[in-house]
Design goal:
The chain is of the alpha+beta class. 39% of the residues lie in helices and 18% in strands. A hairpin with a 2-residue loop joins β3 (92-99) and β4.
Length: 152
């Protein structure tokens, strides 16, 4: 017999999160996130699908969108989106949990006399166990978009 149970997510989520959430729910198991954070280029298929060029694009977009923003506003935007500010990884670092076993780490470095602003979004190494590279890339891009939207 077909189960006709209806699921509701409150508040409604952005359409860009539907497929990643469904893929995550299908694949999730007891594998917990570890202490190793990696860039897209370090995923097995990351070099072919997104990889280093995606990591460079993320750095460029973060530098452009956030280099002129006040640190306090970036912190407020991150916290509004559920990010937890963590010490010691960049000038500003925040961990975002897309789902219980799927954290993303945002690292920002502000411009100074020697270096321009830059940034990275890293994924926990265990995430590759739950989601494909394209879905992970979509979620990284969505996170950057949402933070930028909060800053406007």
């Amino acid at each position: 017999m077909l189960d006709t149970t209806t699921w509701m997510v409150e508040p409604p989520i952005d359409m860009w999160l539907h497929l990643p959430l469904l893929q995550y729910l299908e694949a999730v198991d007891d594998a917990l996130p570890g202490d190793r954070w990696i860039g897209m280029a370090e995923l097995a298929e990351g070099g072919l699908v997104r990889g280093a060029s995606f990591d460079r694009e993320v750095d460029s977009v973060l530098a452009q969108k956030f280099c002129d923003a006040e640190p306090g506003k970036i912190i407020m935007a991150c916290e509004k989106l559920g990010g937890k500010i963590v010490p010691g990884r960049g000038d500003l670092s925040a961990i975002f949990h897309f789902a219980p076993h799927f954290p993303l780490l945002l690292n920002l470095w502000y411009a100074d006399d020697e270096f321009p602003a830059s940034g990275k979004v890293l994924i926990n190494d265990a995430v590759k166990h739950h989601l494909g590279t394209e879905v992970i890339g979509t979620l990284v891009a969505f996170l950057i978009h949402m933070i930028g939207k909060e800053l406007k």
